[in-house]
Amino acid sequence: SEISNSGVDPSTRGRRLDETLEVLRAVLTGEEVTHHGEFFTLDQARILPAPRPAVPILIGGRGESAIRRTARYGDGWLGIFCTPRRFSETRTAILDAAARENRAPDSFGVNVWCGLDTDADVADRLVGEKMQALYQLPRDKFRHLAPSGTSEQVAEWLNSFVEAGADNITLVPAATSMEAAIEHTASVRALLLEHHS
């Protein structure tokens, strides 16, 4: 994996990420930071000028670690491969955990793989081929997580994420060309904005 190839013990990646987020949150303030941790040492480190507005820290992932990290360090969460129900449950868990940390993450998004085409069968085939190539998964294994169809059908499928509290939806479209992907994605965006304005 990329972790072992870089000479890092993979068993430390969770602790390493936690410490990275702690250091990142501190240095982004523009204040002087001294930190002596398990993985990183900084003496009087400072970023000048401090970014304004602050760079948002979005935490990705699923499960308890993502919930804990978002509550403690994140300005928001970016889910992937989850149903609207799981998205809503995770969002609620993050807000509850963040309240215990006296924090309030305010950005909740989701990455969604999708197939887009004017022909729903073509769209389904395109996203199926993409997922098979990347993850060696047959289409049936992720059909409930990766919509396909026309722009209208995909927008309709995504409505439940907006209703579950998603304020940012990132599409990873499989289409017949880059131009078609851009065109269909713009259409999905317009339909969602129209429906939720």
Structural description of this entry:
- This is LLM class flavin-dependent oxidoreductase.
- One of its GO terms (molecular function) is oxidoreductase activity, acting on paired donors, with incorporation or reduction of molecular oxygen.
- Residues 4-123 form the Luciferase-like domain.
- It holds the Pfam family Bac_luciferase.
- InterPro entries: F420-G6PD/mer, Luciferase-like_dom, Luciferase-like_sf.
- With 197 residues, the chain is an alpha/beta fold.
- It folds into 2 domains: 1-55, no CATH class; 56-197, TIM Barrel (Alpha-Beta Barrel), CATH 3.20.20.30.
- It contains 7 helices and 7 strands.
- It has helices at 2-5, 13-27, 64-73, 84-100, 120-135, 151-163, 178-195; strands spanning 33-36, 41-45, 58-60, 76-80, 107-116, 148-149, 168-174.
- The strands form 2 sheets. Strands 3, 4, 5, 6 and 7 form a 5-stranded parallel β-sheet that branches.
- Helix 3 crosses helix 4 and helix 6 crosses helix 7 (178-195).
- The longest helix is centred in the C-terminal third of the chain and has 18 residues, at 178-195.
- The radius of gyration is 20 Å and the shape is globular.
- The relative contact order is 0.10.
- The mean pLDDT is 95.
